[in-house]
Amino acid sequence: xxxxxxxxxxxxxxxxxxxxxxxxxxxxxxxxxxxxxxxxxxxxxxxxxxxxxxxxxxxxxxxxxxxxxxxxxxxxxxxxxxxxxxxxxxxxxxxxxxxxxxxxxxxxxxxxxxxxxxxxxxxxxxxxxxxxxxxxxxxxxxxxxxxxxxxxxxxxxxxxxxxxxxxxxxxxxxxxxxxxxxxxxxxxxxxxxxxxxxxxxxxxxxxxxxxxxxxxxxxxxxxxxxxxxxxxxxxxxxxxxxxxxxxxxxxxxxxxxxxxxxxxxxxxxxxxxxxxxxxxxxxxxxxxxxxxxxxxxxxxxxxxxxxxxxxxxxxxxxxxxxxxxxxxxxxxxxxxxxxxxxxxxxxxxxxxxxxxxxxxxxxxxxxxxxxxxxxxxxxxxxxxxxxxxxxxxxxxxxxxxxxxxxxxxxxxxxxxxxxxxxxxxxxxxxxxxxxxxxxxxxxxxxxxxxxxxxxxxxxxxxxxxxxxxxxxxxxxxxxxxxxxxxxxxxxxxxxxxxxxxxxxxxxxxxxxxxxxxxxxxxxxxxxxxxxxxxxxxxxxxxxxxxxxxxxxxxxxxxxxxxxxxxxxxxxxxxxxxxxxxxxxxxxxxxxxxxxxxxxxxxxxxxxxxxxxxxxxxxxxxxxxxxxxxxxxxxxxxxxxxxxxxxxxxxxxxxxxxxxxxxxxxxxxxxxxxxxxxxxxxxxxxxxxxxxxxxxxxxxxxxxxxxxxxxxxxxxxxxxxxxxxxxxxxxxxxxxxxxxxxxxxxxxxxxxxxxxxxxxxxxxxxxxxxxxxxxxxxxxxxxxxxxxxxxxxxxxxxxxxxxxxxxxxxxxxxxxxxxxxxxxxxxxxxxxxxxxxxxxxxxxxxxxxxxxxxxxxxxxxxxxxxxxxxxxxxxxxxxxxxxxxxxxxxxxxxxxxxxxxxxxxxxxxxxxxxxxxxxxxxxxxxxxxxxxxxxxxxxxxxxxxxxxxxxxxxxxxxxxxxxxxxxxxxxxxxxxxxxxxxxxxxxxxxxxxxxxxxxxxxxxxxxxxxxxxxxxxxxxxxxxxxxxxxxxxxxxxxxxxxxxxxxxxxxxxxxxxxxxxxxxxxxxxxxxxxxxxxxxxxxxxxxxxxxxxxxxxxxxxxxxxxxxxxxxxxxxxxxxxxxxxxxxxxxxxxxxxxxxxxxxxxxxxxxxxxxxxxxxxxxxxxxxxxxxxxxxxxxxxxxxxxxxxxxxxxxxxxxxxxxxxxxxxxxxxxxxxxxxxxxxxxxxxxxxxxxxxxxxxxxxxxxxxxxxxxxxxxxxxxxxxxxxxxxxxxxxxxxxxxxxxxxxxxxxxxxxxxxxxxxxxxxxxxxxxxxxxxxxxxxxxxxxxxxxxxxxxxxxxxxxxxxxxxxxxxxxxxxxxxxxxxxxxxxxxxxxxxxxxxxxxxxxxxxxxxxxxxxxxxxxxxxxxxxxxxxxxxxxxxxxxxxxxxxxxxxxxxxxxxxxxxxxxxxxxxxxxxxxxxxxxxxxxxxxxxxxxxxxxxxxxxxxxxxxxxxxxxxxxxxxxxxxxxxxxxxxxxxxxxxxxxxxxxxxxxxxxxxxxxxxxxxxxxxxxxxxxxxxxxxxxxxxxxxxxxxxxxxxxxxxxxxxxxxxxxxxxxxxxxxxxxxxxxxxxxxxxxxxxxxxxxxxxxxxxxxxxxxxxxxxxxxxxxxxxxxxxxxxxxxxxxxxxxxxxxxxxxxxxxxxxxxxxxxxxxxxxxxxxxxxxxxxxxxxxxxxxxxxxxxxxxxxxx
Length: 1729
Ligand SMILES: [Zn+2]
Ligand SMILES: [Zn+2]
Ligand SMILES: [Zn+2]
Ligand SMILES: [Zn+2]
Ligand SMILES: [Zn+2]
Ligand SMILES: [Zn+2]
Ligand SMILES: [Zn+2]
Hints:
Blueprint: H1 2-17, H2 21-30, H3 34-49, H4 58-78, H5 82-92, E1 105-112, H6 125-129, E2 138-144, H7 164-167, H8 185-206, E3 226-231, H9 238-248, H10 253-266, E4 268-274, H11 276-290, E5 299-303, H12 304-323, H13 328-339, H14 350-357, H15 363-375, H16 381-393, H17 395-404, H18 417-421, H19 424-434, H20 436-446, H21 464-485, H22 493-511, H23 534-555, H24 558-575, E6 585-590, E7 593-598, H25 612-626, H26 628-632, H27 644-662, H28 670-681, H29 690-703, H30 706-716, H31 720-724, H32 728-734, H33 739-761, H34 773-787, H35 792-798, H36 810-816, E8 817-820, E9 829-832, H37 849-865, H38 894-909, H39 917-939, H40 951-956, H41 968-976, H42 985-1005, H43 1022-1058, H44 1060-1074, E10 1105-1107, E11 1114-1116, E12 1124-1133, E13 1162-1173, H45 1174-1195, E14 1208-1209, E15 1216-1217, E16 1219-1222, H46 1228-1231, H47 1237-1246, H48 1273-1291, H49 1301-1323, H50 1334-1349, H51 1356-1368, H52 1387-1402, H53 1411-1433, H54 1449-1464, H55 1475-1501, H56 1516-1523, H57 1538-1549, H58 1552-1558, H59 1581-1589, E17 1604-1607, E18 1613-1615, E19 1623-1625, E20 1628-1630, H60 1632-1640, ...
Antiparallel strand pairs: 1-2, 3-4, 3-5, 6-7, 8-9, 10-11, 12-13, 12-16, 14-15, 17-18, 17-21, 19-20, 21-22, 22-23, 24-25
The structure holds zinc ion (7 copies).
One zinc ion binds at residues 112, 114-115, 133, 136, 159-160.
């Protein structure tokens, strides 16, 4: 197809390319009717360029359009070659001081919390870095696309509006200057012409609706071709579209994915090209297929000419956008053209037309013209205003269109409101001139038409469509917020007028909410259906900020405030006209007071939680209280119209409802009510709900007789009977009443007392109490931190945010709390300062029940720790503002005293049910509050004030006849010694003490005499004192004990958390020591220890007894007993890889015998170190397997482990495992017989020219001898099991125990695992021995012994063959020709394989040389090869570093060797004169090999490590050599047998590969290999965001990737979690990350999801987990999901921890643990990430 097109196209192109832009432009300049000329040109050429076939060819189209269509326009515009014209324009143009950069999706944006006028003001990264806000408190977010940089907009920033770059452009700006003066006149005229024609053309064609006609253009195309155009909608899923397309247009899945992706991105895509019928047929299939459940996908058959012109129309708009970039003058002309009214009057300008057609356009077209608007209209200050007016006038229509449109708001023109309304001057102008507030609110109301008979909103029985509309209409509230966000600094009459008009509309809105969703208590049966409640609360929640902002506006102008107050009051009275609603009045009387009220029971009649009008009035009342007028002339305020009982009625009902719900009276009303009550108190709503209800009650009490208030309150709580009838309580308890009712009443009494506490105590809002705003926030923080220390984000969540998303917390937090930095895990915490605890109020109104009891517990504990009494008395409070001052009298009112007295009486008599401790606690708190109040009054006494607050007097008076009840004080004294009130004793004591203090104060001020109290209240009898002393001592002892215990458990917990791994070890140690195994210190003198060879130190092997974790039975590890095994996990690994591009081509044919030194893929074995019987494990494994199979059949769920692949969890620690390693006694002892090995060796080497099979068998070699396998059947079976597992995982092949590669894989895994551990030790700078965790130590020991024993279960001849081939790589012979040269062999792998395969030869050799001698020879040989390898590849640069003058013996020797090498290589090697450098390089290069070898022989032969190697110290190299039986001067090795060795060295150097390397034709690994690290991450996280935002999907041509994800191993950025980058892997579709792990990490991957700021671990296709990122904000917290937006910086320690997990091969294990802990992780479709 492609070839066909290419052949066809050039013919067209040639004709088109002959067009001359210059000539056409010249013709146009002469034309009398320019529009006609241009249109003719377009009509002819556009269809020849665009839409020439089924698939778009954007590059060709762009090229031709530029040449044939745009070129002439540019020539015409410039009047000369645009190549000269445009640069000239650009030069003449003054650079703009506005940045205006339009944000890409995912680009980082910055807002300054100190200086931005509102949070929508943002900067691009470049501007931000050049601004002063860098040093401020800033917030970072990622853009959702759209929107632009506000740098240079002086209205957006309180300070620093320009960055350095844009500052430069402001110098000579005269704002009002007309930019047209910079353009030549004739150009202005031409620009008008061409802009008008092209803009109109584009608008006409895009808004064209006819099918076979074009606007003012001829249809030139003769043969009709059509497109079947598929449009985007937000209803159908990707999968549905893909599936449908495959059916409808018969395409492959890949093509369908391509179509669907484009449709999703651009909003439309043609899916078929051809004649009308052909296209129509596809259309009907698509419609039919998608219309079943939902409305069908939108498909349209379109004439190709129309599609062509539309494509060019879009191109033109983009072109216009770029042309006006050259000059502000051109921009202004375009704006003028766009806003010019057409002949049809209102709404006929091009801009209007586009806006009003917006919802009918497809996504791609909308994007293009929105961008054009942003770069033209919004960048020109004059036209921005005109455009804003057009936008406001069309507002209603645009919003209605948006309601019907199914695209998200970001693709709607309605979304531009944020750009316009947030500009303060524009917002103000639109309010006063266009009455915008009213328009928005009215539009909003128009879209919520569903009302009940009282005209209130009704959301019950909402249809799906209405619900959808309701979601959309919420965006209007956002617009209202934008308009209000910047408050006026001065008020004009006009603004007042229009604001109040808007306020009226707003009240109308609130009126529709007042009393909505009323509820009635359900009795008898439970409700059948949970009523709808969320919609009403959503509305309330969204409006909360707007309501607050309305109040803020009112607060700014006294006139406005008073007007608003009156309006609000009027509306409230309308809502509750004559609040009686026909209910009968009743009279309540108590203690000689009586009041008239209505008969109303919350538990029987309708009640609503929604009272926004009342609450707004409460808010305004507080504001009034703040005004000067309220202090001086309160009589001038419109307070006389208020009827306090009417004001309090509804808020009181609402609070009673909460109390009753709490008392369990509304249980049958279901969860919807519980949820409503929850949100009523929740931080998101409470500011304009619960808080304001309390304010309203405070307002009411302050304006009425408190006795009246209390009686009404008792009546609403349905408690009036109890307190107004004497002895009611007594009767209650004696009568055999329903316990539930008593319980209920008790709770109600508690709740009522709590409410009184709140009414009196909550005075921390400015206007209620004499406080400022910071006092309020401080108090909130103090109470949050009283519960426990909290992280910054937790505190933020607990505090209400204002419209700028600020809590105000940062400004005060330092005063009340100390910050504690986080460790390696966890987060930074704020702790309350000790001096702030005195402000703690147990009955703080924002505590939830749970928080209250936690806080109480915490505070009491603190007091005990400080050895104070545990009373939690009420704190001293700030005084009320004058308007609320009289409120305080409620505490000393008769009814209050009566309530207190009654409850105390119950407590004194404490007989039966009608009483509870928390009731008493609350009464004590109230008494405490009253005493605090009186004390403060006395302390702040000034001459003219008379103290009217005389609580102490009143409580000292005994009750009057006929009761003659004792005084409250007397009762308190009685209770002080009541044994059943031990808990409250401290509080009562505090009250009595305070009472005495007040008494003394009164005496000293002698204002009014206090009635003498009888008795020595504070006197304690000596017996009491004694008791108290004993108690104190006991308490101290208890505290000490407690502290120690707490410390211990804290330490333990901490320890376990921090050192999970260590903890497991300790467990093991406990395990093993319990079974008495490790007597790990064979008494060997510190004489020379040698790990191998004939000189090897002999160690007596200890009996090893271990315990099975499954059956708890002990057993000794012996050759002939049942096998014991270790749980183990084998995985492929690229952690050491030096070449991540190497892949194993065909695992079935791959020969792993030689490991390449790039270590590109190894096999790692790890173990948790837990031991089982082989048969116990087998039984366990079978059971797991059977269970999983049943479970998967039944539930089709995944588990964290893959049973089919042999995976299981360690039964003890749940560590992921996939096989077991047998435990073995040291194997070498078994095989060793004194055999004369050296003969074989020398024979082999000297007869290198002979062929192997013709090799004359040395004396004593008996090939017919079959050695007897010493192991028990059970051990043999386990040897095979583990060997096969290693083979299967390492090569990724099907298990086959016969395969000759099995032993190779075993040796390889042993070598590779030792190498990884050596690297970890080296990186951490730990000594080689004595510092490995037990589990690794055990694992290495078992692994090495296993690998050494494995040959006994393999084919002897195969192993012998391997040995010969391995040896031949160093001792060449002719049979093995194609062996790798020594540059391409990893010497440690070679050593391990040689040593471990050698016994297979040795067992048939009876000549008497020991195995140890053989080992030593092999070791020396490989070491020498490695030395040559290092010398050949070391890139010694002889720098001028200090060197000693005298050359040591080693240096001389190595120089000699090097010279010999030069000779061998024909002088291709660089000349080196310094032996010092050579020796240094050699030592450094060979160290890792020696360290690995030491580990290997240590585990193989069991020789303990010399103590010098267990510490870091000098001479490590010499110690190693000695342990390994090597001469310190390694080159000495070459001097024994020098003749043979010279031949060997020569043969190594003569390889072609070595020659090629020395000639620079190939690369080779040099030594020492550096450890691999994860990539370097930048300190500032926004660098990563920026990097990711510049990254585009590699597969879909420059598109932004949705989930850019960074591989932390190699630094590749990937397009994750997206269809575009899915690939097929082993027959399954996988996402980019999973695909990447297969090449980069052989299945394991560590990624950073940049947008989410989240680390992702992947292993295989089904395993994965998220892990906290190594980035922290200043508060020591991570921000997964980037929700908070605080600046993030790299935490190096945490990153190191991740790196360590990787180096230790613990990623898979980590995933396993995470998945076991959190089952939802198992369900995630990891393979598609
Ligand atoms: Zn910028
Ligand atoms: Zn800037
Ligand atoms: Zn700032
Ligand atoms: Zn067992
Ligand atoms: Zn375990
Ligand atoms: Zn990678
Ligand atoms: Zn992609």
